Amino acid sequence: MSTVDGVTRTAATVAVAGLVGASALLAPMAARAAESCLVVQAETGSYGKSKLRWLDVGSGTTSRVTEPGYRLNALGYSATRNLVFGVAEGLSRGAHAVTIDRDGKTLDLGPITRAGNRLPLWSPVAGVTAGAIGGNSWYLLRNGTLYTVDLTPGERYLRVIATVFLRPITLAHDVNDFAYHNGLLYGVSTTWRGKGAVITIDPESGKVREAEDARFPPADVYGSVVLGRDGALYATANRIGGRSVLYRLDRSGQVTVVLSGPPLAGSDAAGCLTAPEPPKPEPPKPEPPKPEPPKPTPTPTPSPTSTPPSPSPSSSPSPTPTSSPSPSPSSSPAPTSAPQVVPPPSVSVPKPSRSASPRERKKEEAAAVDSHARTKEKRRWGLTALVLILGGGAAAGAVRRAR
């Protein structure tokens, strides 16, 4: 081993130790069970289409399996969009970008092209084997060449904006998947030099480093690599001993088998998916007000209709008769008392009706005035008769006294 290789290997060991050992970003771990980590894994049989498996690599349980209808590879999870991006092969003009949502629905976004090309004849990333997303950068790997695809909405969306050649190629050639963390890509090399070693890739410079104390069992291909929240690294060997095996490399460097299944021609994975937010409890609804019993409605008392007083004729004061000296009892008989005058009943003048015509109103008013005049005339004659009677009585008394 040369001095340069020794320095490179030492630096990679420090980087990987920071990942699987004592990373301050990840939760501390001390010989505890694996934490839950939901991933989307694309599994492809011999010369067939892929199926998508929703797999909890912490427990090894599967929650859903779907079939998108094409071969998928180079998956990467965008936490900001809560979507998995993948490369679909076998479509027109080469590799297409595909999104996968949490419900398993896929959406074809069209071919991945190079920035500045409007009508590409063929996608430059066709045949990629590894993929991971960091921020708005989607990193794709094919045969030691790393492509950076822009995921920023705009003119360069889904365009290749950078190309880097990895070195040494003896470590990077057979890397079939990686995971992104803190600016580095973590994968498993299966070359004659790597033999299952964990490596780091700097996407800016293309430098590949190997960690001595972080290693998986030797296998032909490790198609799926996912970094758990607890700092463990999960990798799926597509074929080892006639089976596909999912391994877990914890932060102490211990490797355990999570599950095994039929051999795979290809695989790739992305995660851990962000746990869905629990539904917010609805605020308590206010209780409807209790209906009050209906209050009895008071029956209105009809007000007495005031009848305007009918005009009464003015009565003239009756004159008081002058008292005359009483005659002697022997000479004159008792005087006869004066008769009582009863005033005639008051006559109410009817008001003209509003609904009557003006001519009828005038007739009614004239009749009322005529009736009133006749009443006054009768009163005058009554007073005259009274005066005559009283005067006659007084005259007769005077005559008798003169005798």
Could you please describe the fold and organization of this structure?
The chain is an alpha+beta fold and 403 residues long. 17% of the residues lie in helices and 33% in strands. Strands 8-12-11-10-9 form a five-stranded mixed β-sheet, with no helix packed on it. The protein has a four-stranded antiparallel β-sheet with strand order 3-2-1-21, with no helix packed on it. The chain is rod-shaped, with a radius of gyration of 60 Å. It starts with a helix and ends with a helix.
Q: Features of this protein?
A:
4-stranded antiparallel β-sheet; alpha+beta; disordered N terminus; 17% helix; 5-stranded mixed β-sheet; 21 strands; 403 residues
Compile the SSE list and pairings.
Blueprint: H1 3-20, E1 38-44, E2 50-56, E3 61-66, E4 71-78, E5 83-91, E6 94-100, E7 106-111, E8 113-114, E9 130-134, E10 137-142, E11 145-150, E12 159-165, H2 169-172, E13 178-181, E14 184-189, E15 197-201, E16 208-215, E17 222-227, E18 233-240, E19 243-249, E20 255-261, E21 266-271, H3 358-402
Parallel strand pairs: 8-12
Antiparallel strand pairs: 1-2, 1-21, 2-3, 4-5, 5-6, 6-7, 9-10, 10-11, 11-12, 13-14, 14-15, 15-16, 17-18, 18-19, 19-20
